[in-house]
Write a structure and sequence with these properties.
The complex is a heterodimer.
Chain A lengths: L8 H18 L3 E6 L2 E7 L8 E5 L2 E7 L1 H21 L7 H17 L8 E7 L8 E5 L6 E3 L2 E4 L3 H11 L6 H12 L15 E7 L8 E4 L1 H8 L6 H5 L1 H9 L7
Antiparallel strand pairs in A: 1-2, 1-8, 2-9, 3-4, 4-5, 5-6, 6-7, 9-10
Helix pairs in contact in A: 4-5
Chain B lengths: L12 H4 L6 H8 L21 E2 L2 E6 L2 E6 L3 E3 L2 E4 L5 E5 L2 E8 H22 L5 H13 L2 H5 L4 E9 L4 E7 L5 E4 L2 E4 L3 H11 L6 H18 L15 E6 L2 E4 L2 H17 L10
Helix pairs in contact in B: 3-4, 6-7
The chains are: A alpha+beta, B alpha+beta.
Keywords (chain B): Autocatalytic cleavage, Cytoplasm, Hydrolase, Protease, Proteasome, Threonine protease, Zymogen
Protein name (chain B): Proteasome subunit beta
EC number (chain B): 3.4.25.1
């Protein structure tokens, strides 16, 4: 057997990081924005069933970019972690911080274990609190580090550009419609400063709405409601006039999650 | 490269194993001792004294189904609790009412709610109503050992079937046997009297308010003849719980609404202590 070449640990880690980063950069982005009543997630995702944004627990949601099978695996692990914790203690004892820590440990171990291929994923774990200042957003890059974020945030493909676009325009007291529109505009930026046209059909939008009466604050924004929020619904004049109250209508209409 | 290979803080393998959407399957894999059915049964002689929940009634109406429960828990001849709640929402479109050993039943319901929610989150879509009913069957069966020692749990499961667009009721026996009921059912110690009452009062074309009154009448009749079923406690303002499930989801009627219905029924009973009379033919 031949002796393997010596690779310095720095080089080995740099190679793994490079590998993971390239995988993540291939995917389309997800943006997360705080708005007046909670946190909204906007992703470019033409699929109706393979979600990038999902519910983890009452107040906690999950968004991810990168390889679907890898983040789906982590998502299910997170749901199991949250449900088990809520079952053994209480629903109030499931926190985004706890979940983000477990994800960070998991990603970190996988990243530094030579036997495993690093995960090509970047995760967001967000929790909506009773008041805007209690909202928490954590970003979890592929290497197991954990970043506490506020306001607005993008991960995935050209996240740097989207982030700088968002930074200039995002306010914490935006309405839902403003936040979703800003999310869409930011995702429409492409690498060389140009802009593409994105429609409601290409977007996956979900929110953690603190004003929801139900215990589970997560809600997907689908079809007609999304078009109305984006102002694409020009068919009837009446609907745009009621779009403000329409949000509260739909939040009380129950957990039609799918 | 791993500094600590034994306990790295990462999610254990069971968490990341793909395949099952069931929380109970996950528990039996990862933490079997937490599952209610897996506890070793100590040998006991005679009946175990533990609070028992009593009567639950369920009845369908034009737009869905209503599930009502009295508020009494008994332990032998003692009233263990006079304001216990025995009807719980299982998810958006279903609810479960429990009769039998209260402690075990509440735990079973908690696990059942979680099982449905877990499936919904993992799969991205809710179980069918039949699927939910079958899941509950499995859970009751896992409690058979306890049931044989006198700690039985017998639930009623009611839900709105969004595919068939109607309310449906499922009743169970201690072995997990499941049967779908047409129109109405009752379980618990006062169920015999409640069912007799429902038989005379229930019709398919009732409105939500009417079916709620029918359920309250049935519970009143059960409390009239069964000492373990609690009637409405006018002095303490403890009234039966009423949960309505329709195409809009599962809704527990607020106390002022229930108290209005109870007071109206009580007024009638002051005139006719045996309740409304059904026509002879």
């Amino acid at each position: 057997m031949s002796t393997p070449f010596y690779v310095s640990p720095q080089q080995a880690m740099a190679d793994r990081a490079e590998y993971a980063r390239k995988g993540i950069a291939r995917g389309r982005s997800v943006v997360v924005l705080q708005y007046a009543d909670g946190i909204v997630f906007v992703a470019e995702n033409p699929s109706r069933s393979l979600h990038k944004i999902s519910e983890i627990y009452d107040r906690i949601a999950f968004a991810a970019v990168g390889k679907y099978n890898e983040f789906e695996n982590l998502r299910i692990g997170g749901v199991r972690y949250a449900d088990l914790r809520g079952f053994t203690y209480d629903r109030a004892d499931v926190t985004a911080r706890g979940l983000a820590n477990v994800y960070a440990q998991t990603l970190g171990t996988i990243f530094s274990s030579a036997a495993e291929k690093p995960y090509e994923v970047e995760l967001i774990v967000a929790e909506v609190g009773p008041a805007p200042e209690d909202d928490q957003i954590y970003r979890l890059p592929h290497d197991g580090s954990i970043v506490d974020e506020h306001g607005s945030l993008a991960v995935g493909g050209n996240s740097d550009q989207i982030n700088s676009f968002l930074e200039q325009r995002h306010r914490d007291d935006m309405t839902l419609a403003e936040a979703v529109k800003l999310g869409k505009e930011s995702l429409a930026r492409d690498n060389n400063g140009g802009e593409r046209e994105l429609t409601a059909d290409q977007l996956e939008v979900a929110l953690l709405d603190r004003s929801r009466v139900q215990q589970r604050k997560f809600k997907r924004v689908l079809g007609p409601q999304l078009r109305r929020l984006l102002g694409e619904d020009s068919s009837s004049g009446g609907s745009s006039a009621t779009s403000g109250s329409g949000e509260s209508d739909s939040s009380s209409e129950g957990d039609a999650e799918e | 490269m791993e500094a600590n290979t034994r306990d790295t803080g990462r999610l254990p393998a069971a968490f990341l194993t793909p395949g099952s959407s069931s929380f109970m399957d996950f528990l039996s894999d990862h933490a079997p001792d937490v599952l209610p059915g897996n506890r070793p049964l100590p040998a006991v002689e005679g009946a175990v004294q533990a609070p028992h929940g009593t009567t639950i009634v369920a009845a369908t109406y034009a737009g869905g189904v209503v599930l009502a429960g009295d508020r009494r828990a008994t332990m032998g001849n003692v009233i263990a609790q006079r304001d216990i709640e025995k009807v719980f929402p299982a998810d958006e479109f279903s609810a479960v009412g429990i009769a039998g050993t209260a402690g075990l039943a509440v735990e079973m319901v908690k696990l059942f709610q979680l099982e449905l929610e877990h499936f919904e989150k993992v799969e991205g879509s809710a179980l069918s109503l039949e699927g939910k009913a079958n899941r509950l069957s499995t859970m009751i069966r896992s409690n058979l050992g306890m049931a044989l020692q006198g700690l039985a749990v017998v639930p009623v499961f009611a839900g709105y079937d969004v595919d068939r667009e109607k309310g449906r009721i499922f009743s169970y026996d201690v072995t997990g046997g499941r049967s779908e009921e047409v129109g109405f059912t009752a379980v618990g110690s006062g169920s015999v009297f409640a069912r007799g009452s429902l038989k005379k009062l229930h019709r398919d074309d009732l409105t939500e308010e009417q079916v709620a009154t029918v359920a309250l009448q049935a519970l009143y009749d059960a409390a009239d003849d069964d000492s373990a079923t609690g009637g409405p406690d006018m002095a303490r303002r403890i009234y039966p719980t009423l949960t309505v499930i329709s195409d809009e989801g599962c809704r527990k009627l607020p106390e002022d609404e229930v108290s209005g219905l109870v007071r109206a029924m009580h007024e009638g009973r002051l005139e006719q202590p045996n309740g409304p009379k059904a026509p002879l033919s």
